[in-house]
Amino acid sequence: MIFKDFFQKYTTDILFTLANISVMSADGTVMEAMMAMQTLAEKFKAVHETGGKIIFIGNGGSAAMASHHAFDYWKNGKMRAIAFNDSSLLTGGGNDFGYPEVFSQPLGMFAEARDLVITISSSGQSPNILNAAKKAKEIGCYVVTMSAFKRDNPLRSLGDVNIYLDTMVYGYAELGHETILHSILDFTISGSGS
Question: What global pTM score does this model have?
Answer without folding.
Answer: 0.95
